[in-house]
Amino acid sequence: MTEQIERHKYDIVVIGAGGAGLRAAVEAREAGLSVAIVCKSLFGKAHTVMAEGGAAASMGNVNDNDNWMVHFRDTMRGGKFLNHYRMAELHAKEAPDRIWELETWGALFDRTKEGKISQRNFGGHEYPRLAHVGDRTGLELIRTMQQRIVALQQKDGRDFGDPEKNIRVFAEVTITEILKEKGKIAGAYGYRRENGEEVLFEAPAVVIATGGVGKTFKITSNSWEGTGDGHALALKAGANLVDMEFLQFHPTGMVWPLSVKGILVTESVRGEGGILTNSLGERFMFKYIPDVFKDKYADNEAEADRWYVDQDNNRRPPELLPRDEVARAINSEVKAGRGTEHGGVFLDVSKRLSAEIIKKRLPSMWHQFYELAGVDITKEAMEVGPTCHYVMGGVEVDPDSAAAVGVDGLFAAGEVAGGMHGSNRLGGNSLTDLLVFGRRAGMGAVAYVKSHGENPVSQSTLEKAAARIEAPFSRVGGENAYSLHQELQEITHNLVGIIRTGAELTEAIKEIAEIRKRSANISVTGDRKFNPGFHLAFDLDNMLLVAESTAKSALLREESRGGHTRDDFPGMNSTWRQVNHISSFDGEKVNIKSQPLPVLPKELFDLFDVHELEKYMTPEEISKGGSN
Amino acid sequence: MARTLKLRIWRGSDQDGALQDVTVEANSGEVVLDIIHRVQATQMGDLAVRWNCKAGKCGSCSMEINGKPRLACMTQVSAYAEDEVITITPLRAFPVIKDLVTDVSFNYKKALEVRAYEHPADLAPGEARMEQIDVERSQEFRKCIECFLCQNTCHVIRDHEENKKSFAGPRFFIRLAELDMHPLDTLRNRKQSAQEEHGLGMCNITKCCTEVCPEHIRITDNAIIPMKERVVDVKYDPLRWLGSVIRKREGIL
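Output (structure tokens, whole complex):
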């Protein structure tokens, strides 16, 4: 039966067509290799389009005090120093070049008065740093890259007579398995969503760029695609995940109407001057400035307001604290009974900006609230609350090449990769993360293919992969994938959410295992033709592995840091900062081990005031003053 | 559950499909896509629908609701009267794959036919300087989320299958206009190529595309008409015609 399977041969297969995947593909094609881009949606629909605020890069166009070192420091602070220092360093150094490069491919960012790329303020960034296009920066990024791919195809069309000869997009294809031969990557296997027909890609290198895991949770800003496919594919292929306990709950998702609960309200609303108030009308964020940030954030309204006109002589408003702090603050206000009617808080930009400026700077927010909630944000406050937005944890990679640790030929970039953002990501760092590490993954894969060559897929490997796809159709009257997915979302929402306890996590691990057992008996109605129930059966399998990994890592970490808050261990603990949690999969269950965090080298250690580092590090670490 | 809705949903392909009656509950504040998802989860596990962001930003859930091309995620159920039957059908201008999912590959083929942006060879990365007012004209067109509702509603495509070969459609006219107005693009013959290679002349400005655009891009007024006018200028103004002949001869154009 497997003789009729559609087969393709490429140098590199990129799974995922968001910012990271497309950037990796561009790099690989420009280096002369052939690339397949495989994505679950249509080309150009990836979740990157949802990114609103901007792309952080220390170009210094608005404030020339900015440079890579300031950006590096902000990123490490935002991640509470759990970041892989080398990723944060590479990101800060290379981000400006990646933004300027987009301009050479036709991107049109908003401008400063001098005609340079404009940059806006964002939570946790010391200077205005986010290159942006209104509040649709992600769309600009993905369209630019999509059009760059088209440009490369047009060139191939002129050179070889076939635009798709060396770079081709396989849209609406789900990858169910990454294939290995002789312990190394050999390709990927999946099915076309349109008709359920199976596809084999043979390639010695695979780049995973599948994005996030939001759909594991009930309230999320992620689309249906965010089902942790790459996380699970990597685990099953023998790679590791690092620090899966860290999930970012974006502080401002819509809370009403019900149908849009979770949809993102960009942080730019706060960057442009939006303030948060509770049902008593109090601007509550002043109560929630943690000690480590007290010297950088204003503790009174007068100073916070002055900052908008004079940033050199005033501290920033606390609405612009890193996302984890703001999300927890909102959560506390609502829990204390000071929330809005629909369980959120108020976010108001109408008092600071004119209607005209709001519509110009936040056009899609205006549109979104007006059309979906009947709220005119130029006149009224928005109701907002936390929503599961981003996973900091992900595939453990070598920072320079984006190679997955432990699997030759496997690479990962973007949200699916771990380490870059530590325990909490700063807004704006994601888009440049995609570009910096997407390019590096492309370079890493090119170098690998050039030194290793082909690695054909054997018949037995192919047959095993094919059998798995047929399985849900051969069962009758089994479990319903939709119901199991809802049950999983209830568990993660209630037991693995923003605030966690040891007892709840233990319960979650038990219940997730139970669902996993039942999911082995999922049956699918209908045939293979564009059948969402069939698609969900595979996505669900991935989400279950992600949820297990998150719950188990979270149970081990007995402290609160960034996107991991333990009610039973409320403080941040310097000893825990020295540890990463590594998930691996033994074929049955996820196992977690502790691994020492790479030590900050002296030249990066010295970029900080030692008194600041004392807040995060143990006295022994401080006395060593970094490595080497 | 606030109300009970009566729906008619297209099931099957364009050869063997039919409208199927469905009754489903709806909560207040829900959009049509929510309802389709509820039908999927409770009554028709294999109902095919394309969607992604559910926030009007990705342009995936394009379909026809009571005959109007719309994004299902941006269509409030409350916009329909209590006793109104809501009929949901796939985009009509493209072949139906299954249920509400159509084959939109036509648009990706057309995208491949529009010559890519060309950056000035002597302008290094980071050196570009542009006025905000100059980038805004192209930015309007770059707001496009590629939902292809404009393509679907354009009667040149919708009613005349034979036009598809020579007509790129409104989505790609705004792409051409975007490049034409791009302050840095070095290919200076965008308007002519719109006219000569992409069928701009077949558009007779009925503005249907503008009406259905969920991003409120003024496709006809800001992209199509200005390009048409300037194509005419070049073609019929004798001085500009002569200029273009000379430039062409000298390889400038």
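Chain B has a mean pLDDT of 92.
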